[in-house]
Design brief:
The protein is mainly β. The chain has one domain: Sandwich (Gamma-B Crystallin, domain 1). It is built from one helix and eight strands. It has one helix spanning 4-17; strands at 29-36, 46-53, 60-61, 73-79, 83-90, 94-99, 105-107, 116-121. The protein starts with a helix and ends with a strand.
């Protein structure tokens, strides 16, 4: 069974080994977080660890593929210095806004869960 630490290590290895990323992804990521299918950030509800691509200050879907399960909890495990992760319950960074501080579980009971994100960088 994969742990979060192993998943993050694998993601980091893929990021450094990839020859290039699509322009949509911005070529780098500004934060990484664990996505959970239920509130509470329980290991059994982990969807997967996932990077937030780009250079920050850009709204984007939290589920980039649009095919994953709803995300009801999120735990930011890494974020660039000077940046903070914000989550939203609506598309296009609308709906209720939640701050997602480093290493803290953030949860919502909104029907759609967390839908979009913006990593705000100074």
């Amino acid at each position: 069974m994969f742990t979060s630490a192993i998943a993050l290590a694998v993601l980091a290895a893929f990021a450094t080994a990839a020859p290039s990323l699509s322009p949509r992804q911005g070529g780098t990521f500004v934060a990484v977080g664990n996505k959970y299918s239920k509130t509470g950030c329980a290991q059994g509800d982990l969807i997967f660890a996932d990077p937030i691509f780009g250079n920050g200050n850009q709204c984007q879907p939290l589920d980039r593929s649009g095919t994953g399960p709803k995300i009801f909890s999120f735990n930011t495990t890494a974020v660039n210095s000077g940046c903070k992760v914000q989550l939203y319950t609506g598309a296009g960074c609308t709906g209720t806004e939640y701050d997602a501080p480093l290493n803290q579980c953030v949860a919502t009971n909104q029907a759609l869960g967390f839908v979009s994100t913006n990593v705000i960088c100074a």
